[in-house]
Amino acid sequence: MAPTTHLLSLLLPRAPIPTRRLLLSISLPTLFATATMSTTNTTSPPTYPIRPIPAPPSSLSPPREPLPRIDETNDSDFYSQPRFVTHIDDAAISRLRDYYHWNLWDGAPKNPGSGSPREEKKNKKRIRILDLCTSWISHFPTSMETLAISTARGQSHEAHASDEDEAPDLEVIGLGMNEAELNANPILSHRILQDLNIDPQITLPPSSSSSSSSSSSSSTLDATTCVVSIDYLTRPLTVLRSIHTLTRPEGRIHLVVSNRCFPTKVAGEWLRVSEEERLELVGRYLWWSGWEGVEVVDLCEKGEKGKGMGMLERVFGVGAGDPLWVVRGVKGGGGGVGRTEL
Question: How far is it, in rounded angstroms, from Cα 97 to Cα 106?
Answer without folding.
Answer: 15
